[in-house]
Every structure is written in C-alpha cells, then in structure tokens.
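Two proteins follow. First one:
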Amino acid sequence: MSGTLNRRIRADIEAKILSGEWGPGYRIPYEHELMAQYGCARMTVNKVVSELAAAGLVERRRRAGSFVAAPRIQSAILQIPDIEAEITLRGETYRYELLRLQRRRADRRMALEWELTPRGEVLELECRHMAGMRPFALERRLINITAVPEAADVDFSRQSPGSWLVGHVPWTEAEHHITAVNASSEMATLLDIPDRAACLELQRRTWRGDENITFVRQTFRGDLFNLVARFTPSQASSGG
C-alpha cells in the first residue's frame, strides 16, 4: 500500500511540473503539508521528495524547502521531433501502426538494454508512422518499465509511445545520434522503398535525472524527411 501511495504522490507532483503548473523555481508543498494532504507518514513524503531530487526534477534547499528545478538539457540545437506534427504541417493525414509489442527482462547481452535498466524490465515496441498512404518512418523503442511502470498499462495500439512519453513523463536530459543508413530488405518493404535506399536514422536516449527512461531508433525515408536546425552563435560550439 505504501508503495502505491508513494507512486501516486510522485505522479501527482510530476504531473504539475510537466504541465507547467509548477514552473522552475516554484516551491513545492512542505513535507508536513504533503503529509496532511495525503494522510501519510513523513517517511513516505521524504522518500518521494528524495526520488524527485535524485531525478533532477526538484532541488532541495536547506531551511527553505524544495523547488522545481530548471531542466538540464545537453543541447537546445536539436529538439525532439514530433512526427505527427511534422506530417500534419505538410497537409497530410497522420496515421500510426503498432507492429510489435513485448514486455520482457532486459537482455544483459545487449549493452544498450542493460544500461537502460540492469536486471529490470523493458517494454519493446516496433511501429510505423504513415503520411497519408505512404510510410514515413519506422520506430523501435525500449521503455524502462522500472522507471515508468505506468507505461505497461497504456494501449499503444491507439497512441504512439513517443507522444505518450512527451505528454506524461518528464525528462531532464536527451542525447541524439544521427546517421545515414541504407535500408535493409525488411526496412525497404515496410517503408515501401527500394532495397539499399538512403534513409536517415535518429537514435535518441532520454533521462530523468540518473534514471534512463527510453531508447528509440527512428528510421526515416530519405526522400520524405529533412532534419533542420536553426540556432544562434551562443548555441553553437566554439569550434564552429
């Protein structure tokens, strides 16, 4: 029961931070206020606040309380792309298809999985994003169920995992790796392109403090997707 209440309190606070209702610098309720609100012991709320601080969502200030922390993002040059918005802006109809879903233990033989959640569970999804009647991108995603247990109850046949994560799970840091790849036979079939056709592959990892949240590999048709970044000199590296 205490574990369920712990998750409920944390989810309530995270939701207020994610929605912007509690912005950076906002003082969250004192522990005694949370105790009264949820009818629980100090140990329970102290654990929640400690978890939020460890995740980088709040910062504790001695004798002043706990405050919503400013997000720590490695680079603002590339934002997390919203595939549905990209397709809609083109004037095309967005459609999403779930190809495969599996909940399983992380495979210690796979370095990415083991780093995502050592000895924990992952939700593995493969899906396809459509622009009108044309395939637009393929996606393979791993979600750390240990860090985001509520993801196990989401119907991802109706909603893409990326959209759900952006709307429900705060993140503090992201890392992109972008490469050019040639489509394998399987990829070519799913994207309706010739074998070995040029594609853009985006790999992304996101964290919430020290917690790994998700790893995703998105493969875009080279003839339908452009990656554009606009930035100022202050955002660029000194090396140009």
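Second one, unrelated to the first:
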Amino acid sequence: MSASTAPRSHSAPPARVPRHLRRELAVLGSVLTDLSAGRSTAVTVIGATGFGQDALTRWTSRTAEARGLRVLSARGTPYESGLRYGVVTQLLHPLTGPGADLPAAPPHEGRRDCPPGLTEVLRTARGRPTLVVVEDAQWLDEESLRWLHLLIRRAAAAPLAVLAGGCGVTVSGPDWREVTASPPAAVGMRELVLDRMARTDVADVVRDTCGVPGADAFLSAAHHASTGNPAVLGDTMRRFARRGHAPDESGVPELRTIGAAVLGDHVERGLRGLPAETVALLRALAVCGDLLDFPLVCGLAGLRHLGGARLRSAVEATGFVTTGTSGPRIEAQVRPRVLEEMSHRDRAELHARAAELAHRAAADDRAVAALLLGAGPVGAPWAAQVLRRAAGAARREGDHTRSIACLSRAVCETPDPAHRAELTFELAAAELVTAPEAGRRRLGALVRGPGIAPGLRVRALALALADGEADTLRRAAAEALPTVTGPERDDLIALFWAAEPAGRERTELMVPEVPALPDLPASPAQAGQRAWQLAVRGERLPVVRRLARAALAAPAGGALVLPRLAACRALFLTEDYEEAEAGLGTLLAALDHRDMGVALPRVLATRAELNLRRGLLAVAERDIGAAERSLKPSGRHPATMPQLRAVRVLVDLERGHAREARSLALEPVPRAAQDSAYWPHLLFARALAHAFAGEARAAAGLMKECGRQLLSRHHLNPALLPWRSCAARLLRRTGGGAEAERLSHAERRLAREWGTPGALGWAELNAVPDDGAGRLAGIRDAVRLLRNGPASPWFVRALAELAAAEAAQGGDRRTALAAVDELSVLTATHPHSPMAARTRLLAQRLEPAPRTPAAPCPLWAALTASEAATAVLAAHGHSNSRIAELLSVSRRTVELRLSRAYSKLRISGRQELRALVRARERKLNDAGRTGL
C-alpha cells in the first residue's frame, strides 16, 4: 500500500477545531453518544475546500477512540478515484491487517449482491460500536460509494455510524453526497453544511492567535484578505503572529501582504487537486464570470453538456468563488492565481473566445475591450470597432492609460491602411497626455508618411502644434506642400505660419519655400493667422477685425485650433472683447468633441488673459486654475509653459498675492521654453513681479529684454504688451530719463497708428511728466480714453493716478472724490489687491474735507462697496447668475445685495436702478469734460 493510501495513526493529539464550528462539534458529539448507546447514524459534512470539514472528521475520530469506540477511517485521493474499492481497502485494513480481528485477506470484487468486507464490518460492529470515517469523499470511486451506501442501508442491524466529509469539486462521475440517500428509518441522518466565516468568527481567530482583540480596521482587512476561508485566515494569522505584529491599524499593510501570499499558496495547492473540468470552469469564471451568465461561462469552458447545478456546485466547493443572485463569481484577488499556470497562448485563446461570446451577448464595450486586451488578434472587424468605442469612453472619463491600451490593440486589429492611420492619430492624441514623446513620434510619422488620407495630415500637424511641437513639424509641413492641393494645402500653409511666427531671430532656410499668407485670404484658417500677423505688427486695424471675424464665422467643429485661437487673440488687440470671448467659448465647446484635449490648457489660459484685460479677476483666476489643472507638467512640451506661468503671475499680482507671484516668476524654466512665442510674455510678468517688490532696476532690464524678444519677431503693437511704457516708468526711477522719453514717444506713436482707445490711453498716461502743469491735463486725457473700454487694470491705475493728481496739484477735489468712489466699487471684490490698498489710502487723504456725492442720487453713498458693485453690474444688464460669477459669490448673495440696494436707494427694481446708474455715469462724464 502506498503512503498516500495508508491509514493515519490516531496517536496524534486531538486536532484543534476553529471556534466558529461549535455547533457542528455539538452535533458530532451527540452522534458519538448515540453510537455508544447503540443507535446508528449517517452524517455528511459538506463545505468548500478549507472550510473545516477535515478538522471535524479528525476530531470525531479521535474523540470516538477516546470513548472506546472502533474507528475505521479512509481518505479519498484524486489519484485513486479510478481504483475500484480503493477507499474500501483503507477501511478494511484494521480488520484484515496483522493483529486484526479477522483473518487477513485482500478484498475481492465479490458478487454484485455481496460487496467485499461488508458482512465482516457489520459483524464486528455488533461486538463493538464502530465509526466509519471517510475524508475527501469527493474522490470516492464508484464501487466504494456503492459499498458505503449499502453499509448505511444495513446499519440498523448493528451499532454503526458513518461520517463522510468533503466537497463537490467534481463535475463528472458519481456524486458522493448520494451515499446517504434513502437511509432506513432506524438510521438517523444528519447533514452539516459549512459556510464562510463571519466577521465575528474572524475576531475570535484573531484573538486566539494574537492573544489580544483586533482593531475594527484590522478585522475588516483580515476578513477581506482571507475571503472568509478559515484555512486561509488561520494560516495568515499564524504567520502574522510569528512576526510579532499587533492586530491594530498599523499592522494592516503587513497583514495584506501576508494574506495575499497565503491565499496564492492556497489557490495553487487547491488547483493541483482539482479535476481538469473544474479547473477549466474556474478559469472561464476568472476571465469573464462577472460579464457572462453562468451557462455561457460553462460553454466557454467546454462543459455545456453537463448539468448546470452540478457545475455550479463544483466551483462553489473549491472555496475560490462566492455565490450571488447572478451566479458564482471568483474573488478579485484570486483571479490572477487561477490563471497563473496557463500558458500565454492558452490564456490569450481563452480571452479571445470570451470576448467573442461577450460581444455576441451585447456586453458593454469596455468589458469586451478588457477581454480583447488579454487576447491575441482575433481578425474580426467588430474587434477594432469595440476597442475604438471603449477608448473613447475611457478618454471621456479621463483614463488615458486605458484609452492608449485600447487604441494600440485596435491598430493591431485593423488591416486597412486608411483605418489604421485614423486609429494611429487617435492613439497619438491619447499618448500626448501620458506618453507625449511617443505621441509626437506618431504624429510626425503621419505628417511625413506617404498615402495619408486627405485631411488627416492636417489634423496630425494641428494636434502636434497645439501640443507645442513646432521646429521639426514646421519643416515637415513645408515638405508635404508639393504633394497636396486645395483646402488641405491652404490649411498646411496656415499651420506653417502658426508654427513659426514671422521674423523670429532664429530662422531656417525652407526647401521647398513656403508661400506667404495672402493679404486677404479666403480660407478661414489663413484668415485667422493673417489677422494675428497684422495685429501683432500693429497694422490695418479694420482689416484685422474683418479677417478675425471671418475666421470665427466658420464652423468650429472642423476648424483648426491654432488659427482660430489666433483670431480670438487678434480681437483682444482690437479690444473687441465680447467677440473674442464668444469665439473662445465656441472653441472650448468644440474641443470636448474632438481629439484636441491637449489644446485645452492653451485655450483656457487665453481666456484667462482676456478676462484679466477686462478686469474680471475672479473669472481670470478660475480660468487659469482650470488651465493648470488640465495640464500635466511631466512630459508636456516646454513651449506650453510660459503662457500659463505668465498669466498666473499677472493674475496673482493683481489679486494681491505678490509673494506667490514673485516665487513663481523666478522659478527656472527649460531652455526649450525660451523659444516659445510666449517667452516675452513671461519676461514681462517677471518684470512686473520685480517692480511690485521695489526692484526697479532689475524690472527695467527684464522689460527691455522682453521688448528685444518682441522686436525680433516684429511684434510692434503696444496693445500686445505695453513694455515700452512700463520700462519708461521704471527707467524714470533709476535715472534713465532720456531713454524713458524715447520709449514713451515710440509707444505713443505706435498706439496712435493702431488706434484702439486702451492702447492709446495707457501710452498717454505713461507719457505724462512726473510734475508740472501738463501732468494733470495728460492724466485727464488718458482717463477719458481708457473709460471707453472695460474696467481693465490699466484703467484702474489711471483712475488712481487721476485721484492722486486732482488731490495733490490743486485740481478739482470733487473729481478726486468721484474717482475714489469709482475705485471703491471696482476694487470691492479684491480687498487685498494693491489697487484696493491704494484706494483706501486715497480715501483717507480726501476724507477730512466735506464730501459731496458725485452721483445725482444722495442715497448712493449709503451703499456699501459690495452693494454698489453689484448694483452697477445689474444696471448694465448682467443677470444674477453672471453677477455671481463675476464677483465670485453665490446667486443668493447677489439677490440679497440687490434687495438692500433697492431699499437704500428707495427704488423698486432694475429699471429705476438703470436710470440712476446712467445718470450717475453722465455726472462723472460731465465732470470729466470740465475736469476729468
């Protein structure tokens, strides 16, 4: 007899049975009591692997021996499940072996009506009550199962108890649980079904193993790590206790590590002892059990011909699955272990067959795509379509890693070159977010590659440029021009000039030569780029407006981002802010439905710059914050960084966060960022940060470097960046009066040539002398010009200059008070900003003298600054929602402020409020004609 089939010695100490099996122990104890009293019983202990049935059968055997009962025991094994009477041979060994009660004789087949040894067992039981114990009964051979069944049928003739324990992991062959089918009335029948451990049972095991109660978090982690399996939990806790850890929250990470190792070992050992059919079913469940109904999973495993109930019972008995309303499900932490020993080829084939089944069952695209990612190419058209849709869903959810995986797999599934190129473009768009270098290489290959479909080359180039890549792809666009015609050629030319602004200091010889943009192009993309070219040079303002509007009139859905963005920025310089805002809003909405998410930070930063120019600091803060959140600093092209940083520094300075602005402005930047078209903007922001800190000399130097960079690009328009006037102010403080006058004169000349009130008003303001009779008149002229535009930071500063000049140089005190009153409204929403602080100082200087309200309504002075600001916005036609957005307050706050304002002004609604505000503004304008 082999060692595996030899009967176990009963001299070992009693097996320790988990505390949660107390009920089962009581039942088995009563069975032994009945046996001692001469009453026969048949008991089955059923549970999944590791649930404790072996511990119960061994405890019963040892307890029976201690009570003087005869014990015949055997254990089924998978290797002997095909051996006839294999278990019977083990049971009869104590009766037929050396020193046994019966003469030694090997069991024979016997006649069908008299199996071997059955009569001998019944005879000996009459002389001494006998317990027959069979462990791992699921491996019973058919003859041994019939033998036990007949023994129970005859157990009424002798004091005999039969205890069989096991699980139902077999999917074919005899069902061992039939051993107790139809016992005689005189034989008692008990069935014990073991289940997973409850959380309270886990607490008992933790306390018994560690000696102290476990913390709640620890108990939850232990229950999850063991999946409620007593064997896994016991082994895990013994290892945990041996390492000297305490069962508290600090021990949870170590517990999870140990639990994962123990569970993996348990699954590995368990799989070795399972039938091939059960293993195949478990693997099918691990791949798609959460996705397909159980009958389909059985079909995937090749077991559709077997009964569903038997298959369900088999996998549940392994202890690796849980049972819900939808059928068996494998625990997530067990799935990798179940598939671990499969070859790569077999695993890929299983995933491919599961994906096809799931697709036929109309499963969710993302779930089918997950199966396809584990399979090899299936060669079916539906596979690429499913993967593409799943990639789109992942991109919308922000899961770019999964989107890349799906698209990479879709490219492998597509034999058609045109379709593969389209998928490659989508893959590159996804890679630009998380693997930008790979995305840029793919886009470059699409731009240069032969046979690319019309329009795809342009989209690839536009995407790469939106990411910031210009140097290499600019040459690629030039090389592609001779091979394209029509609208695609026009778009490539527009993108060429968008990639490399005219007149940069570093130039390259282009072969073939790229034609310049037409003076009045018909193409919307070329119109937008041409508008920007003229705008930055400060030339032909009416033409710039016309071209920019033509570019924005085209549908945004298929428009190129950079030329359309250039048209919006051109409208900044023409001071058509509302049209620019509408264009940016349309562009942002279009980005949500295209593969141009990489352009989102740039468009948001541009809108933040627009709102900063309009004095809407709260909205500018919101936009630049959104731009920063949408930008992943690691891997994003350095060319995109200067714009965001410049706008953030300027917003922080205006809001009074000078320390944060200075810190950000002084952070080092990559060398490649200095080639960006926005590098002069960052230099300008750095200069202002130094100026706010009182470092006039350093600020002047940065302003002049900013100007040098702009001039090298032929960006002459002072509306773009008023570097000359700002440098002139700084130079006057540091003794550079002559240079300051030269710069001021140049800016006034260029501003007059351009013709917008904002640029001209700021140039005039900074050209006024520091003292003398002409200073007050110059400031009044500048304010009059700037008042025609929005309440920009330049207008606020001009208003403060006016108030100070009127108060200090014998001007009109009433005009000074009116200016301070207006400043209080404009700075009310940012009380910590530098201009708010200056407004308070001006108010203190003017307070001692009698004050006459500037508004025709004497009750206006009763409004608080916040109420006045809200009332002015309401009078100008803004809705409550828009006012709340502009002032960064809730809509309810706006309603309360307006209600208080109506009460104080003794009016009933917006119509009267609008009349009061208009009268007040006319009063201010009249004062301006005589003193403003």
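SUMMARY FIELD: The longest strand covers residues 160-166. The chain has a mean pLDDT of 81.
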